[in-house]
Write a structure and sequence with these properties.
The chain has 82 residues and is mainly alpha-helical. It is 51% helix and 11% strand. The protein has one domain.
Length: 82
């Protein structure tokens, strides 16, 4: 792939979402799949990674929610063409 293969401009990652983005990116091989394709992230792996991060309960909940938003957006994009 080259930059010409990508139709959209690169997205800016805001500083307050960087941690969630990096965690989401680290889960790129941790999708659960079914007969029709990806169904969602493997939350066992997500929680394990989050446990290592030394987060407060509030940070943990916020990060989990942020990952859920990205997961839903990714699934919408994956199945948009079908």
């Amino acid at each position: 792939m080259t930059p010409d293969d990508v139709a959209a401009e690169p997205a800016e990652i805001w500083p307050d979402t960087l941690q969630a983005f990096e965690l989401f990116a680290s889960l790129r091989t941790q999708w659960r799949g079914g007969m029709c394709g990806p169904t969602g992230l493997d939350y066992n792996v997500l929680y394990r990674k989050m446990d290592w991060m030394g987060l407060t309960a509030e940070q943990y909940d916020r990060l989990e929610a942020d990952i859920g938003v990205m997961e839903a957006a990714a699934l919408d994009e994956i199945y948009a063409e079908r």
